[in-house]
Amino acid sequence: MRPWNTARPSKTVRPWKTMRPRQTMRPRKAVRPWQTVRLRKSVRPWQTDALITAAMLTLGVAGTYGRLSSSGLTERPLDPLGLVLIVVASLVLVWRRGAPVPVGVVTVACAIAYYGARYPGIFAAGPALIAIYTAATAGRRRLAIGLAVALAGGIAVPVALADADPEPGGLSLLSGWLVAMVVLGEVTKNRRAYLREVEQRAIQAELTREEAALRRAGEERLWIAQELHDTLTHTISVINVQTSVALQTLERDPALTHRALLAVKESGKEAMHELRATLGVLRQADTDGPEVGLARLPRLVDRAEAAGLPVTTSTIGTRREVPPEVDRAAYRIVQEAFTNVLRHAGAASVTVTIEYAADMIKLSVEDDGQTTTGTADNGMGLIGMRERAVALGGSLTAGPRPGGGFAVRAELPTAAAP
């Protein structure tokens, strides 16, 4: 055995070359309401016109030669001129949609000439009836009525000049057919208009649903951004203050350092709890613990005081249950106000006032610290607080106090948001 004929060792399979799982069949897209109407229009207009032309030509020629009908008058045999009139009247129906006036005039003229020459059968009037029906469906009511009157009057002349009364049937029923074509054309026109209106309403409803879905998605994104901003910003500010205290007192006062680190731990735990609650709402799952609201205000005050921020709270009126969205917004506004004080006011004390009025809650968060540019400007925190208040039909004002410090005041209606 030659060296190059020896069996080669089997190659190891690379991780990325492992067999991929079979892809599941994608579900078919749902048919939209207006698409059900369009699916029925599988036959194109020119195909319909071609079929009608072929049918009229076949009936006119074969039916007349086969003596399948009678005009009721004294008839003469069909000659080439009569055949030409049938063929021309049938072929022009191909252009009945684009040129209803010329087609109507040609078909009516051919029918009048045909029966004026006493040619046999009634099928020669078929193209004229189709032209009248087409004019009515196109909304050309006057044209349809004019063609019907012209055809009836043109055929009435040879009937009146006949040597004997026409036999029952045949052309004696033409007036009824003319009226039927005009009425049927009007009904078809109204039905098509109704279907178009239904289609437009379905399209508008679908667009409205998509716009509403996009608007809800935007509102959800805004809500998530506000929740994350309020939670993380406040927690990070508290952790930053406590970490600074711990670094400064690490050697001089270990007990104070220990309390600062415990406050950091508590702030991180609280942030994790609120993030878990937010994610639980997004997953539509039950959260662990109470909902964020003014009931948790004492814990928020304790964390602020642990960060070195003296807080005084007062309540005016009798505390009562309020809608959850109002309760959450009130808590978040106070939380963000505390965050602004920790970040911008320096050494300060805070006074929180909650007033339960008849149909609203009035919040006031005032501090006596320094007023910096970042506090007075419309930062993301102030924008978020104002958006929360406006979303509930309330209002929020924020700005420097006349005697120094900063004040945030909000009015939140306790009735259903508009």
Q: Mind explaining what this structure looks like?
A:
The protein has 418 residues and is of the alpha+beta class. The protein is built from twelve helices and five strands. It has helices at 33-39, 45-65, 80-91, 100-116, 126-137, 141-160, 174-248, 254-282, 297-306, 324-345, 373-376, 380-391, and strands spanning 311-316, 350-356, 360-367, 395-400, 406-413. A five-stranded mixed sheet has the order 1-2-3-5-4, covered by helices on one side. Strand 2 and strand 3 form a beta hairpin. The longest helix has 75 residues, at 174-248. It starts with 32 loop residues before the first helix and ends in a 5-residue tail after the last strand. Residues 1-41 and 285-289 have low confidence and may be disordered.
The biggest sheet amounts to:
5 strands, mixed
Rg on CA atoms, Å: 44 Å
Give the helix proportion (percent range): 55-70%
Number of helices: 12
Return the string of H and E elements.
Answer: HHHHHHHHHEHEEHHEE
Distance between the termini: 91 Å
Physical arrangement of strands within the biggest beta sheet? 1-2-3-5-4
Class of secondary structure makeup: alpha+beta
What form results from the Cα inertia axes? rod-shaped
Descriptive tags:
418 residues; alpha+beta; 5-stranded mixed sheet; 12 helices; 5 strands; rod-shaped
Compact description:
The chain is 58% helix and 8% strand. The chain contains twelve helices and five strands.
Topology:
Blueprint: H1 33-39, H2 45-65, H3 80-91, H4 100-116, H5 126-137, H6 141-160, H7 174-248, H8 254-282, H9 297-306, E1 311-316, H10 324-345, E2 350-356, E3 360-367, H11 373-376, H12 380-391, E4 395-400, E5 406-413
Parallel strand pairs: 1-2
Antiparallel strand pairs: 2-3, 3-5, 4-5
Helix pairs in contact: 1-7, 2-3, 3-4, 4-5, 4-6, 5-6, 5-7, 6-7, 7-8, 7-10, 10-12
